[in-house]
Amino acid sequence: MARFFFITLAMICVLGANGFFTQKSTWERMQASLEAQTNRRKSEEINPVLDMFDRIPLYDAKQSSTYKDGVASRAIDGNRDGQYHSGLSCTHTDDNEDNVSWEAKMKSGSAQVAYVVISNRLDGYYNRINGVKVFVDDQFCGAVEYLMGVENYAVKCPPNTVGSVVRITGRNQVPLTLCEVRVLGNDSVCKCNSDE
Fold first, then answer.
1. Which of 52, 75, 92, 124 has the most CB atoms in a 10 Å sphere around its CB?
2. How far apart are CA 171 and CA 90, in angstroms?
3. Which residue has the higher pLDDT, 190 or 38?
4. Fold adopted by 46-186
5. Longest dimension (CA), the chain
6. What is the per-residue pLDDT across 171-192, written as a single tens digit (0 to 9) for each?
7. What are the structural domain ranges in the chain?
8. Nearest-CA neighbor of 166 among 115, 124, 93, 97?
9. What is the pLDDT of residue 52?
Protein backbone atom coordinates (compact mmCIF):
# COMPACT_ATOMS: atom_id res chain seq x y z
CA MET A 1 0.00 0.00 0.00
CA ALA A 2 2.82 2.40 0.88
CA ARG A 3 4.54 1.63 -2.44
CA PHE A 4 1.34 2.49 -4.38
CA PHE A 5 1.08 5.75 -2.43
CA PHE A 6 4.67 6.77 -3.27
CA ILE A 7 4.28 5.87 -6.97
CA THR A 8 1.04 7.87 -7.14
CA LEU A 9 2.69 10.79 -5.34
CA ALA A 10 5.66 10.66 -7.74
CA MET A 11 3.32 10.71 -10.77
CA ILE A 12 1.43 13.68 -9.35
CA CYS A 13 4.72 15.54 -8.82
CA VAL A 14 5.88 14.83 -12.40
CA LEU A 15 2.53 15.86 -13.90
CA GLY A 16 2.42 18.94 -11.70
CA ALA A 17 5.93 19.96 -12.74
CA ASN A 18 4.84 19.76 -16.37
CA GLY A 19 1.89 22.05 -15.73
CA PHE A 20 -0.79 19.37 -15.89
CA PHE A 21 -2.49 20.36 -12.63
CA THR A 22 -1.78 24.09 -12.58
CA GLN A 23 -4.54 26.56 -12.00
CA LYS A 24 -2.41 29.11 -13.85
CA SER A 25 -3.60 28.10 -17.32
CA THR A 26 -7.22 28.41 -16.21
CA TRP A 27 -6.44 31.73 -14.52
CA GLU A 28 -4.65 33.00 -17.64
CA ARG A 29 -7.62 32.02 -19.81
CA MET A 30 -9.99 33.84 -17.47
CA GLN A 31 -7.80 36.96 -17.49
CA ALA A 32 -7.50 36.87 -21.29
CA SER A 33 -11.28 36.57 -21.60
CA LEU A 34 -11.80 39.49 -19.21
CA GLU A 35 -9.23 41.57 -21.11
CA ALA A 36 -10.96 40.78 -24.41
CA GLN A 37 -14.36 41.79 -22.97
CA THR A 38 -12.90 45.05 -21.60
CA ASN A 39 -11.23 45.88 -24.91
CA ARG A 40 -14.44 45.07 -26.81
CA ARG A 41 -16.36 47.48 -24.53
CA LYS A 42 -13.75 50.19 -25.12
CA SER A 43 -14.10 49.60 -28.87
CA GLU A 44 -17.89 49.91 -28.67
CA GLU A 45 -17.67 53.13 -26.63
CA ILE A 46 -16.10 55.01 -29.55
CA ASN A 47 -19.00 54.20 -31.90
CA PRO A 48 -21.17 57.19 -30.81
CA VAL A 49 -18.22 59.49 -31.53
CA LEU A 50 -17.75 57.97 -34.98
CA ASP A 51 -21.44 58.42 -35.77
CA MET A 52 -20.89 62.20 -35.75
CA PHE A 53 -18.91 61.99 -39.02
CA ASP A 54 -19.83 61.28 -42.63
CA ARG A 55 -18.62 58.05 -44.18
CA ILE A 56 -16.47 58.99 -47.15
CA PRO A 57 -16.93 56.50 -50.01
CA LEU A 58 -13.80 54.83 -51.36
CA TYR A 59 -13.01 53.29 -54.74
CA ASP A 60 -10.10 51.99 -56.83
CA ALA A 61 -8.53 49.92 -54.04
CA LYS A 62 -5.02 48.55 -54.67
CA GLN A 63 -2.50 46.59 -52.65
CA SER A 64 1.17 45.69 -52.99
CA SER A 65 0.42 42.01 -53.72
CA THR A 66 -2.47 39.55 -53.46
CA TYR A 67 -2.46 36.15 -51.77
CA LYS A 68 -4.96 33.77 -53.39
CA ASP A 69 -8.34 35.55 -53.56
CA GLY A 70 -7.73 38.23 -50.89
CA VAL A 71 -8.12 41.10 -53.38
CA ALA A 72 -7.85 44.77 -52.34
CA SER A 73 -11.48 45.61 -53.14
CA ARG A 74 -12.70 43.35 -50.33
CA ALA A 75 -11.78 46.08 -47.81
CA ILE A 76 -14.34 48.48 -49.34
CA ASP A 77 -17.18 46.07 -50.15
CA GLY A 78 -19.32 47.11 -47.16
CA ASN A 79 -19.00 43.65 -45.60
CA ARG A 80 -17.14 43.69 -42.24
CA ASP A 81 -17.21 39.91 -41.78
CA GLY A 82 -13.89 39.05 -40.17
CA GLN A 83 -13.91 35.41 -41.26
CA TYR A 84 -11.29 35.30 -44.02
CA HIS A 85 -12.19 31.89 -45.46
CA SER A 86 -15.97 31.83 -45.06
CA GLY A 87 -16.80 35.56 -45.07
CA LEU A 88 -14.93 36.31 -48.31
CA SER A 89 -14.56 39.92 -47.21
CA CYS A 90 -10.91 40.30 -46.16
CA THR A 91 -7.89 41.34 -48.17
CA HIS A 92 -4.62 39.40 -47.93
CA THR A 93 -1.17 40.29 -49.23
CA ASP A 94 1.58 37.74 -49.88
CA ASP A 95 3.68 36.28 -47.09
CA ASN A 96 7.31 37.36 -46.73
CA GLU A 97 6.89 40.70 -48.49
CA ASP A 98 8.57 43.99 -47.60
CA ASN A 99 6.81 47.37 -48.00
CA VAL A 100 3.34 45.87 -47.61
CA SER A 101 0.58 48.37 -48.40
CA TRP A 102 -3.06 48.91 -49.31
CA GLU A 103 -4.70 52.09 -50.60
CA ALA A 104 -7.93 53.48 -52.00
CA LYS A 105 -9.10 56.79 -53.42
CA MET A 106 -11.90 58.95 -52.03
CA LYS A 107 -14.83 59.33 -54.42
CA SER A 108 -15.27 62.97 -53.48
CA GLY A 109 -11.76 63.71 -54.75
CA SER A 110 -10.62 65.36 -51.54
CA ALA A 111 -11.99 65.19 -48.02
CA GLN A 112 -11.27 66.25 -44.48
CA VAL A 113 -10.57 63.02 -42.59
CA ALA A 114 -11.18 62.58 -38.85
CA TYR A 115 -10.85 58.79 -38.48
CA VAL A 116 -9.87 55.73 -40.48
CA VAL A 117 -11.57 52.63 -39.08
CA ILE A 118 -10.10 49.20 -39.84
CA SER A 119 -12.04 45.97 -39.23
CA ASN A 120 -9.67 43.18 -38.24
CA ARG A 121 -9.63 39.50 -39.15
CA LEU A 122 -11.42 37.39 -36.53
CA ASP A 123 -10.66 33.76 -37.46
CA GLY A 124 -6.96 33.77 -36.59
CA TYR A 125 -3.79 35.78 -37.09
CA TYR A 126 -5.42 38.65 -35.16
CA ASN A 127 -2.17 40.33 -34.16
CA ARG A 128 -1.04 40.92 -37.75
CA ILE A 129 -2.85 44.25 -37.42
CA ASN A 130 -0.38 45.39 -34.75
CA GLY A 131 1.81 48.25 -35.93
CA VAL A 132 -0.15 48.91 -39.12
CA LYS A 133 0.23 52.60 -40.07
CA VAL A 134 -2.47 54.82 -41.55
CA PHE A 135 -1.85 57.77 -43.89
CA VAL A 136 -4.06 60.24 -45.73
CA ASP A 137 -2.01 61.22 -48.75
CA ASP A 138 1.42 61.66 -47.11
CA GLN A 139 0.05 62.76 -43.73
CA PHE A 140 0.58 60.23 -40.95
CA CYS A 141 -2.58 59.64 -38.92
CA GLY A 142 -1.42 56.97 -36.51
CA ALA A 143 -0.67 53.30 -35.95
CA VAL A 144 -2.80 50.42 -34.72
CA GLU A 145 -1.98 48.85 -31.39
CA TYR A 146 -3.40 45.33 -31.27
CA LEU A 147 -5.68 44.60 -28.33
CA MET A 148 -7.17 41.15 -27.79
CA GLY A 149 -10.90 41.06 -28.53
CA VAL A 150 -11.05 44.32 -30.49
CA GLU A 151 -12.67 43.95 -33.91
CA ASN A 152 -12.55 47.55 -35.16
CA TYR A 153 -9.66 49.95 -34.75
CA ALA A 154 -10.38 53.68 -35.11
CA VAL A 155 -7.22 55.59 -35.99
CA LYS A 156 -7.67 59.31 -35.33
CA CYS A 157 -6.08 61.69 -37.82
CA PRO A 158 -4.65 65.06 -36.75
CA PRO A 159 -7.05 68.04 -36.98
CA ASN A 160 -7.52 69.46 -40.49
CA THR A 161 -6.17 66.36 -42.25
CA VAL A 162 -7.25 66.71 -45.87
CA GLY A 163 -6.46 64.33 -48.70
CA SER A 164 -7.70 62.17 -51.53
CA VAL A 165 -6.06 58.77 -50.85
CA VAL A 166 -6.04 56.63 -47.72
CA ARG A 167 -2.99 54.37 -47.46
CA ILE A 168 -2.31 51.62 -44.95
CA THR A 169 1.13 50.11 -44.56
CA GLY A 170 2.01 46.92 -42.73
CA ARG A 171 5.09 45.44 -41.16
CA ASN A 172 7.73 43.77 -43.32
CA GLN A 173 7.35 40.01 -43.73
CA VAL A 174 3.81 40.09 -42.25
CA PRO A 175 0.75 39.78 -44.53
CA LEU A 176 -1.69 42.69 -44.41
CA THR A 177 -5.26 41.49 -43.87
CA LEU A 178 -8.02 44.11 -43.79
CA CYS A 179 -11.66 43.09 -43.51
CA GLU A 180 -13.07 46.58 -44.03
CA VAL A 181 -11.67 50.11 -44.20
CA ARG A 182 -13.95 53.08 -43.52
CA VAL A 183 -12.93 56.70 -43.77
CA LEU A 184 -14.91 59.12 -41.62
CA GLY A 185 -14.88 62.89 -41.79
CA ASN A 186 -16.32 65.61 -43.98
CA ASP A 187 -16.31 65.08 -47.74
CA SER A 188 -17.62 68.55 -48.55
CA VAL A 189 -14.25 70.30 -48.30
CA CYS A 190 -14.33 73.77 -49.81
CA LYS A 191 -12.19 73.98 -52.94
CA CYS A 192 -12.32 77.78 -53.10
CA ASN A 193 -9.81 80.16 -54.61
CA SER A 194 -8.22 82.54 -52.13
CA ASP A 195 -9.24 85.43 -54.45
CA GLU A 196 -12.95 84.80 -53.92
1. 75
2. 18
3. 38
4. Jelly Rolls (2.60.120)
5. 102
6. 999 999 999 999 999 876 544 4
7. 2-44, 46-186
8. 115
9. 84
